[in-house]
Amino acid sequence: MGEAELQEEKNQLIIHAVIHFYGDAASNELSEMVASDIALHWNQADASIIIRRKLFKVHFDITGIFNNSLTPEIVFQNTDPRNNYFRIEEYAHGDISFVDGLGSNTGYFKLANLINNSTTAAHEFGHTLGLEHPQNLDIRGLGQPGIMYPRGTLVDPEFQYDPTVAAGLKGGTINPFKRKVSTHDIEDLRLEQLQFSNLGFAVVGNFSSIWHDKQLP
């Protein structure tokens, strides 16, 4: 979830999001790293869109905060569309990170999914902005996979875990480290359909406002 700001004098559309991280595996350093990683991936698309017959460059302004004093009440009562809340732990059921639905502002991250240049945080952030997984999960012959393709997608060999393995076998599916945000991903956000206020602000996504307790094996 985030708040879009239309800066007409600068021909910029800025998506603001503040991600509050909590949990035993969260830290100041990790919070800043994950936010920076999300911004890096989404800004690499270097995309522009047309709104009101004007061209606007899309920029993502993402801030990560380690909030060790966060309480369920703060999450439930939040009304600021810029605020997102994610728990980070070493263990997660199903060994996966997740968000609480499309266009949500809460979720749960498994620590291992966030390190070593993974694209998991950027992928899940796409869900918070309302993006689904693509319907076609066999994109062999189409080149670079976008950020929203899930694990298990069939891709060209150079985007697999193991380029030498036949598609669909173990190692023969998308390596999530090789996903990238594309201009198509930005177009799928449908930012031109947002209802901007007189001050130039609009909400992207919705409030799920779910507090997550620590998951245990």
What would you say about this model in short?
By secondary structure, the protein is α/β, with parallel strands linked by helices.
Write structural notes for this entry.
It is globular and about 55 Å long. Strands 1, 2, 3, 4, 5, 6, 7 and 8 form an 8-stranded mixed sheet that branches. Strand 1 and strand 2 form a beta hairpin. The chain is built from 4 helices and 8 strands, in the order E-E-H-E-E-H-E-E-E-H-H-E. The chain folds into 2 domains: 2-131 and 189-204, no CATH class; 134-181, no CATH class. The longest helix is centred in the N-terminal third of the chain and has 16 residues, at 28-43. The mean pLDDT is 96. It is α/β, with parallel strands linked by helices and 217 residues long.
What's the layout of helices and strands?
Layout: E1 2-7, E2 12-22, H1 28-43, E3 48-51, E4 54-66, H2 72-77, E5 83-89, E6 98-99, E7 106-110, H3 120-128, H4 183-188, E8 201-204
Helix pairs in contact: 1-3
